[in-house]
Design a protein that fits this description.
406 residues; alpha+beta; 10-stranded mixed beta sheet; 6 helices; 17 strands
Protein backbone atom coordinates (compact mmCIF):
# COMPACT_ATOMS: atom_id res chain seq x y z
CA UNK A 1 0.00 0.00 0.00
CA UNK A 2 1.38 3.40 -0.94
CA UNK A 3 0.70 6.49 1.14
CA UNK A 4 1.11 9.72 -0.77
CA UNK A 5 0.92 12.40 1.89
CA UNK A 6 2.14 15.97 2.13
CA UNK A 7 2.45 18.80 -0.33
CA UNK A 8 1.42 16.74 -3.37
CA UNK A 9 -1.46 14.83 -1.74
CA UNK A 10 -4.22 14.13 -4.20
CA UNK A 11 -2.36 12.15 -6.84
CA UNK A 12 -3.04 8.87 -5.06
CA UNK A 13 -4.91 7.71 -2.01
CA UNK A 14 -4.95 4.52 0.03
CA UNK A 15 -8.57 4.00 -0.88
CA UNK A 16 -7.66 4.29 -4.55
CA UNK A 17 -4.89 1.75 -4.23
CA UNK A 18 -7.18 -0.55 -2.27
CA UNK A 19 -9.86 -0.34 -4.96
CA UNK A 20 -7.31 -0.98 -7.69
CA UNK A 21 -5.95 -4.13 -6.09
CA UNK A 22 -9.15 -5.45 -4.55
CA UNK A 23 -8.22 -5.11 -0.89
CA UNK A 24 -8.56 -2.64 1.94
CA UNK A 25 -6.56 -1.83 5.05
CA UNK A 26 -8.67 0.21 7.49
CA UNK A 27 -5.65 1.36 9.45
CA UNK A 28 -4.47 3.18 6.34
CA UNK A 29 -7.82 4.20 4.88
CA UNK A 30 -8.21 7.32 6.95
CA UNK A 31 -5.66 6.26 9.56
CA UNK A 32 -8.09 6.63 12.43
CA UNK A 33 -5.51 5.55 15.02
CA UNK A 34 -2.72 7.76 13.65
CA UNK A 35 -0.39 4.74 13.61
CA UNK A 36 1.19 5.27 10.20
CA UNK A 37 0.82 9.03 9.99
CA UNK A 38 2.91 9.55 13.13
CA UNK A 39 5.74 7.23 12.13
CA UNK A 40 8.13 10.12 11.43
CA UNK A 41 6.69 12.57 13.93
CA UNK A 42 3.23 13.76 14.87
CA UNK A 43 1.18 14.46 11.81
CA UNK A 44 4.00 13.89 9.35
CA UNK A 45 5.39 11.19 7.12
CA UNK A 46 7.64 11.51 4.06
CA UNK A 47 5.86 12.18 0.78
CA UNK A 48 6.07 8.63 -0.56
CA UNK A 49 5.84 5.58 1.71
CA UNK A 50 5.09 1.95 0.85
CA UNK A 51 3.72 -0.22 3.66
CA UNK A 52 3.35 -4.00 3.39
CA UNK A 53 0.40 -6.06 4.66
CA UNK A 54 2.07 -6.42 8.09
CA UNK A 55 2.15 -2.61 8.44
CA UNK A 56 5.93 -2.59 7.99
CA UNK A 57 7.34 0.36 6.02
CA UNK A 58 9.32 -1.09 3.12
CA UNK A 59 10.04 2.18 1.29
CA UNK A 60 10.13 5.89 2.14
CA UNK A 61 11.35 8.85 0.14
CA UNK A 62 10.84 12.60 0.67
CA UNK A 63 11.67 13.29 -2.95
CA UNK A 64 10.36 11.15 -5.79
CA UNK A 65 12.23 8.19 -7.25
CA UNK A 66 9.71 6.58 -9.57
CA UNK A 67 11.66 3.38 -10.25
CA UNK A 68 12.39 2.76 -6.57
CA UNK A 69 8.81 3.54 -5.60
CA UNK A 70 7.28 1.24 -8.21
CA UNK A 71 9.70 -1.58 -7.32
CA UNK A 72 8.74 -1.29 -3.65
CA UNK A 73 5.04 -1.31 -4.54
CA UNK A 74 5.49 -4.43 -6.70
CA UNK A 75 7.40 -6.19 -3.91
CA UNK A 76 4.79 -5.28 -1.30
CA UNK A 77 1.94 -6.48 -3.54
CA UNK A 78 3.78 -9.74 -4.27
CA UNK A 79 3.94 -10.48 -0.55
CA UNK A 80 0.26 -9.88 0.13
CA UNK A 81 -1.10 -13.26 1.32
CA UNK A 82 -3.76 -14.82 -0.79
CA UNK A 83 -6.01 -16.25 1.89
CA UNK A 84 -6.64 -17.54 5.39
CA UNK A 85 -8.39 -20.82 4.60
CA UNK A 86 -9.03 -21.88 8.20
CA UNK A 87 -10.11 -18.38 9.36
CA UNK A 88 -7.86 -18.50 12.42
CA UNK A 89 -6.48 -15.00 11.86
CA UNK A 90 -3.15 -16.22 10.44
CA UNK A 91 -2.32 -15.86 6.77
CA UNK A 92 -1.67 -19.15 4.99
CA UNK A 93 2.07 -18.52 4.28
CA UNK A 94 2.82 -18.26 8.01
CA UNK A 95 0.16 -20.65 9.36
CA UNK A 96 1.71 -23.99 10.43
CA UNK A 97 -1.65 -25.66 9.68
CA UNK A 98 -3.27 -23.54 6.96
CA UNK A 99 -6.30 -25.83 6.60
CA UNK A 100 -6.89 -26.51 10.30
CA UNK A 101 -8.07 -23.90 12.80
CA UNK A 102 -5.20 -23.38 15.26
CA UNK A 103 -4.85 -19.71 16.23
CA UNK A 104 -2.30 -20.54 18.98
CA UNK A 105 0.01 -22.44 16.56
CA UNK A 106 0.82 -25.24 19.01
CA UNK A 107 3.76 -27.37 17.78
CA UNK A 108 4.93 -29.66 20.57
CA UNK A 109 7.76 -31.23 18.55
CA UNK A 110 8.81 -27.97 16.87
CA UNK A 111 8.98 -29.58 13.44
CA UNK A 112 7.13 -26.77 11.66
CA UNK A 113 3.83 -28.66 11.48
CA UNK A 114 1.23 -27.60 14.02
CA UNK A 115 -0.27 -30.18 16.35
CA UNK A 116 -3.65 -29.71 14.64
CA UNK A 117 -2.40 -31.21 11.37
CA UNK A 118 0.77 -33.16 12.29
CA UNK A 119 0.14 -36.86 11.65
CA UNK A 120 3.02 -37.61 14.01
CA UNK A 121 1.40 -37.12 17.41
CA UNK A 122 4.53 -36.28 19.36
CA UNK A 123 2.58 -35.35 22.47
CA UNK A 124 0.96 -38.74 22.97
CA UNK A 125 2.23 -41.42 20.58
CA UNK A 126 5.50 -40.60 18.82
CA UNK A 127 7.27 -39.57 22.00
CA UNK A 128 11.05 -39.92 22.24
CA UNK A 129 11.98 -43.59 22.06
CA UNK A 130 8.66 -44.88 20.73
CA UNK A 131 10.07 -45.26 17.22
CA UNK A 132 7.51 -47.86 16.13
CA UNK A 133 4.51 -45.86 17.42
CA UNK A 134 3.09 -48.76 19.45
CA UNK A 135 0.34 -48.34 22.08
CA UNK A 136 -1.27 -50.75 24.53
CA UNK A 137 -5.02 -51.44 24.71
CA UNK A 138 -5.46 -48.38 26.92
CA UNK A 139 -3.67 -46.08 24.50
CA UNK A 140 -0.47 -45.87 26.55
CA UNK A 141 2.91 -45.70 24.81
CA UNK A 142 4.94 -48.93 24.71
CA UNK A 143 8.73 -48.61 24.51
CA UNK A 144 10.52 -51.94 24.27
CA UNK A 145 12.96 -53.99 22.21
CA UNK A 146 10.77 -53.53 19.14
CA UNK A 147 11.60 -49.83 19.24
CA UNK A 148 15.31 -50.68 19.25
CA UNK A 149 14.87 -52.75 16.10
CA UNK A 150 12.77 -50.00 14.53
CA UNK A 151 15.39 -47.37 15.37
CA UNK A 152 18.18 -49.48 13.85
CA UNK A 153 16.12 -49.83 10.67
CA UNK A 154 15.54 -46.06 10.55
CA UNK A 155 19.29 -45.42 10.82
CA UNK A 156 20.26 -48.12 8.33
CA UNK A 157 17.89 -47.00 5.57
CA UNK A 158 18.00 -43.30 6.54
CA UNK A 159 14.24 -43.06 6.89
CA UNK A 160 14.23 -39.33 7.64
CA UNK A 161 10.60 -38.81 6.60
CA UNK A 162 8.91 -41.15 9.05
CA UNK A 163 7.18 -40.41 12.33
CA UNK A 164 9.60 -42.82 13.94
CA UNK A 165 12.49 -40.58 12.87
CA UNK A 166 10.93 -37.73 14.81
CA UNK A 167 10.99 -39.92 17.93
CA UNK A 168 14.52 -41.21 17.33
CA UNK A 169 16.65 -38.44 18.85
CA UNK A 170 16.95 -40.30 22.13
CA UNK A 171 20.17 -38.73 23.43
CA UNK A 172 19.07 -35.20 22.48
CA UNK A 173 22.00 -34.21 20.24
CA UNK A 174 19.82 -33.82 17.10
CA UNK A 175 21.87 -36.48 15.27
CA UNK A 176 20.20 -39.84 14.61
CA UNK A 177 22.81 -42.62 14.79
CA UNK A 178 24.04 -45.62 16.75
CA UNK A 179 24.51 -43.47 19.86
CA UNK A 180 20.72 -43.13 20.00
CA UNK A 181 20.43 -46.92 19.81
CA UNK A 182 22.63 -47.30 22.88
CA UNK A 183 20.72 -44.51 24.65
CA UNK A 184 17.45 -46.31 23.91
CA UNK A 185 18.82 -49.63 25.20
CA UNK A 186 19.86 -47.89 28.41
CA UNK A 187 16.51 -46.12 28.59
CA UNK A 188 14.64 -49.43 28.44
CA UNK A 189 16.96 -51.06 30.98
CA UNK A 190 16.85 -48.15 33.43
CA UNK A 191 13.25 -47.09 32.84
CA UNK A 192 14.16 -43.50 32.00
CA UNK A 193 16.14 -41.38 29.57
CA UNK A 194 19.54 -40.08 30.63
CA UNK A 195 19.18 -36.34 29.95
CA UNK A 196 22.72 -35.51 31.08
CA UNK A 197 25.09 -34.59 28.27
CA UNK A 198 27.85 -37.20 27.91
CA UNK A 199 31.20 -35.64 26.95
CA UNK A 200 32.98 -37.27 24.00
CA UNK A 201 36.00 -39.49 24.56
CA UNK A 202 38.82 -40.68 22.30
CA UNK A 203 39.67 -43.97 20.62
CA UNK A 204 41.33 -45.52 17.59
CA UNK A 205 40.12 -47.33 14.47
CA UNK A 206 43.08 -49.28 13.14
CA UNK A 207 43.45 -51.48 10.06
CA UNK A 208 46.14 -54.08 10.77
CA UNK A 209 47.69 -55.77 7.71
CA UNK A 210 49.44 -59.11 8.19
CA UNK A 211 50.11 -62.48 6.53
CA UNK A 212 47.10 -63.88 8.37
CA UNK A 213 44.80 -61.32 6.73
CA UNK A 214 43.59 -57.85 7.60
CA UNK A 215 41.80 -56.92 10.79
CA UNK A 216 39.88 -53.85 11.91
CA UNK A 217 40.49 -52.91 15.55
CA UNK A 218 38.33 -50.34 17.34
CA UNK A 219 39.75 -49.51 20.75
CA UNK A 220 39.10 -47.02 23.55
CA UNK A 221 39.64 -46.63 27.28
CA UNK A 222 35.89 -45.98 27.44
CA UNK A 223 33.84 -49.13 26.93
CA UNK A 224 32.37 -49.47 23.42
CA UNK A 225 28.73 -50.49 22.97
CA UNK A 226 28.17 -49.85 19.28
CA UNK A 227 29.47 -48.45 16.02
CA UNK A 228 28.38 -47.74 12.47
CA UNK A 229 30.15 -47.06 9.19
CA UNK A 230 29.71 -47.06 5.43
CA UNK A 231 31.87 -48.90 2.90
CA UNK A 232 31.84 -49.47 -0.83
CA UNK A 233 30.43 -52.87 -1.70
CA UNK A 234 33.22 -53.13 -4.31
CA UNK A 235 35.66 -53.40 -1.38
CA UNK A 236 33.61 -55.29 1.20
CA UNK A 237 30.67 -57.54 0.40
CA UNK A 238 27.64 -58.27 2.54
CA UNK A 239 28.92 -61.84 2.87
CA UNK A 240 32.21 -60.51 4.28
CA UNK A 241 30.28 -58.57 6.89
CA UNK A 242 28.01 -61.49 7.79
CA UNK A 243 31.11 -63.53 8.61
CA UNK A 244 32.19 -61.06 11.31
CA UNK A 245 32.31 -62.70 14.75
CA UNK A 246 30.66 -60.27 17.17
CA UNK A 247 30.74 -60.33 20.98
CA UNK A 248 27.93 -62.27 22.65
CA UNK A 249 24.62 -60.38 22.60
CA UNK A 250 25.69 -57.96 19.87
CA UNK A 251 23.64 -57.49 16.69
CA UNK A 252 24.34 -56.14 13.23
CA UNK A 253 22.13 -54.50 10.59
CA UNK A 254 23.31 -54.08 6.98
CA UNK A 255 21.61 -51.87 4.42
CA UNK A 256 22.68 -51.75 0.77
CA UNK A 257 22.27 -48.82 -1.61
CA UNK A 258 23.48 -48.50 -5.21
CA UNK A 259 27.18 -48.64 -4.37
CA UNK A 260 27.41 -48.51 -0.58
CA UNK A 261 26.82 -50.73 2.42
CA UNK A 262 25.74 -49.10 5.67
CA UNK A 263 26.50 -51.13 8.78
CA UNK A 264 25.09 -50.64 12.29
CA UNK A 265 26.52 -52.83 15.08
CA UNK A 266 25.36 -52.60 18.70
CA UNK A 267 25.21 -54.38 22.05
CA UNK A 268 21.54 -55.34 22.14
CA UNK A 269 21.79 -56.55 25.74
CA UNK A 270 23.27 -53.34 27.09
CA UNK A 271 25.43 -55.52 29.35
CA UNK A 272 28.41 -56.57 27.24
CA UNK A 273 30.47 -53.49 26.30
CA UNK A 274 34.10 -53.93 25.24
CA UNK A 275 37.23 -51.79 25.29
CA UNK A 276 38.37 -53.44 22.07
CA UNK A 277 36.40 -54.76 19.10
CA UNK A 278 38.26 -56.76 16.44
CA UNK A 279 36.96 -58.27 13.23
CA UNK A 280 38.45 -59.66 10.04
CA UNK A 281 38.09 -57.71 6.80
CA UNK A 282 39.37 -58.28 3.24
CA UNK A 283 42.02 -56.09 1.64
CA UNK A 284 40.92 -52.61 2.72
CA UNK A 285 42.49 -49.41 3.98
CA UNK A 286 41.44 -46.94 6.63
CA UNK A 287 40.09 -44.79 3.79
CA UNK A 288 37.59 -47.52 2.95
CA UNK A 289 35.43 -46.52 5.93
CA UNK A 290 33.30 -43.37 5.95
CA UNK A 291 30.64 -41.75 8.16
CA UNK A 292 31.95 -43.73 11.11
CA UNK A 293 30.32 -43.24 14.52
CA UNK A 294 31.38 -45.11 17.67
CA UNK A 295 29.18 -45.15 20.78
CA UNK A 296 30.26 -45.64 24.37
CA UNK A 297 28.31 -47.70 26.91
CA UNK A 298 27.10 -44.43 28.47
CA UNK A 299 25.60 -43.31 25.11
CA UNK A 300 28.36 -40.83 24.37
CA UNK A 301 30.50 -40.43 21.27
CA UNK A 302 33.95 -41.97 21.02
CA UNK A 303 35.91 -39.91 18.51
CA UNK A 304 38.23 -42.31 16.71
CA UNK A 305 41.52 -41.64 14.94
CA UNK A 306 42.06 -43.81 11.88
CA UNK A 307 45.36 -45.54 11.34
CA UNK A 308 46.93 -48.43 9.45
CA UNK A 309 49.68 -50.80 10.54
CA UNK A 310 51.67 -53.51 8.83
CA UNK A 311 53.33 -56.12 11.01
CA UNK A 312 57.11 -56.46 10.67
CA UNK A 313 57.74 -59.49 8.47
CA UNK A 314 61.52 -59.51 8.01
CA UNK A 315 61.67 -56.44 5.77
CA UNK A 316 64.73 -54.25 6.03
CA UNK A 317 63.81 -51.95 8.90
CA UNK A 318 65.62 -48.75 9.92
CA UNK A 319 67.58 -48.78 13.18
CA UNK A 320 65.27 -46.16 14.72
CA UNK A 321 61.85 -44.70 14.02
CA UNK A 322 61.64 -43.23 10.52
CA UNK A 323 58.95 -41.38 8.57
CA UNK A 324 58.45 -43.25 5.30
CA UNK A 325 56.16 -40.80 3.53
CA UNK A 326 53.92 -37.75 3.89
CA UNK A 327 51.28 -37.96 1.18
CA UNK A 328 50.17 -35.92 -0.65
CA UNK A 329 52.60 -33.08 -0.16
CA UNK A 330 51.53 -30.29 -0.61
CA UNK A 331 48.14 -31.33 0.81
CA UNK A 332 44.64 -29.94 1.49
CA UNK A 333 43.41 -30.74 4.09
CA UNK A 334 44.17 -34.45 4.63
CA UNK A 335 47.70 -35.80 5.06
CA UNK A 336 48.67 -39.45 5.53
CA UNK A 337 51.73 -39.99 7.72
CA UNK A 338 53.50 -43.34 7.29
CA UNK A 339 56.43 -44.38 9.46
CA UNK A 340 58.46 -47.47 10.33
CA UNK A 341 59.03 -48.56 13.93
CA UNK A 342 61.80 -51.17 14.38
CA UNK A 343 60.67 -52.28 17.85
CA UNK A 344 57.80 -51.81 20.26
CA UNK A 345 58.02 -48.37 21.86
CA UNK A 346 56.07 -45.56 23.45
CA UNK A 347 55.22 -43.51 20.38
CA UNK A 348 53.81 -40.03 19.84
CA UNK A 349 52.95 -38.20 16.58
CA UNK A 350 52.71 -34.41 16.74
CA UNK A 351 52.55 -31.36 14.44
CA UNK A 352 54.50 -28.11 14.85
CA UNK A 353 54.22 -24.80 13.00
CA UNK A 354 57.19 -22.76 11.77
CA UNK A 355 57.33 -20.98 15.16
CA UNK A 356 58.02 -24.29 16.85
CA UNK A 357 54.60 -24.33 18.48
CA UNK A 358 52.77 -27.63 18.86
CA UNK A 359 49.48 -27.21 16.95
CA UNK A 360 48.06 -30.74 16.99
CA UNK A 361 48.58 -34.19 18.49
CA UNK A 362 47.82 -36.91 15.96
CA UNK A 363 48.76 -39.78 18.27
CA UNK A 364 49.00 -39.27 22.03
CA UNK A 365 51.84 -41.19 23.60
CA UNK A 366 51.04 -44.90 23.70
CA UNK A 367 52.77 -48.24 23.39
CA UNK A 368 52.92 -49.12 19.69
CA UNK A 369 53.85 -52.41 18.05
CA UNK A 370 56.86 -52.64 15.77
CA UNK A 371 56.07 -52.45 12.09
CA UNK A 372 54.77 -49.95 9.57
CA UNK A 373 52.09 -47.49 10.63
CA UNK A 374 50.00 -44.83 8.94
CA UNK A 375 48.02 -42.07 10.65
CA UNK A 376 45.87 -39.37 9.11
CA UNK A 377 45.88 -35.67 9.89
CA UNK A 378 42.92 -33.44 9.01
CA UNK A 379 44.24 -29.87 8.89
CA UNK A 380 40.90 -28.28 7.94
CA UNK A 381 41.07 -25.89 10.91
CA UNK A 382 44.68 -24.82 10.27
CA UNK A 383 45.86 -21.93 8.04
CA UNK A 384 47.91 -22.50 4.89
CA UNK A 385 51.62 -22.79 5.42
CA UNK A 386 54.49 -25.09 6.29
CA UNK A 387 54.18 -27.63 9.12
CA UNK A 388 56.61 -30.09 10.69
CA UNK A 389 55.42 -33.64 11.35
CA UNK A 390 57.36 -35.38 14.10
CA UNK A 391 57.19 -39.03 15.15
CA UNK A 392 58.70 -39.61 18.59
CA UNK A 393 59.50 -43.18 19.71
CA UNK A 394 61.50 -43.87 22.85
CA UNK A 395 64.64 -41.72 22.75
CA UNK A 396 64.43 -41.16 18.99
CA UNK A 397 62.43 -38.86 16.74
CA UNK A 398 62.10 -38.15 13.04
CA UNK A 399 60.77 -34.88 11.60
CA UNK A 400 59.71 -33.94 8.09
CA UNK A 401 57.95 -30.92 6.63
CA UNK A 402 54.58 -30.77 4.88
CA UNK A 403 52.95 -27.84 3.14
CA UNK A 404 49.24 -27.08 3.52
CA UNK A 405 47.80 -25.19 0.53
CA UNK A 406 44.17 -24.06 0.70
Amino acid sequence: MMIDYGMDWGTYSCTGWADAFGTSYPILDGDADMVVWDTYGQGYVPHHVVVDHNMEIVYSEIGFDESGLLAAIDAAIANIPESDMDNDGLNDPVDNCPQDYNPNQEDVDEDGLGDACDICDNANVWVVGNTDGSLDVNGNVIINVMDILSLVDIIAIEDVGSCGYEAANVNGDNQINVIDVIALVQMIMNGETNTNSVPPSDGTFEILHSDQGDRAIIESTDEISGFQFEVSHFEITENDLNNIALPEGWSMKISESIDRLKVVVYDATGQNPRNKIEFSVPNVSANSFSNTVVASSSAGEIRVRFSESKAFQGDLMPESVQIQSLFPNPFNPGLSISYALPKDALTRVVVFNTMGEEVDVILPEQMTRSGYHTYYWNAADQPSGMYFIQVQAGNHADTQKAILVK
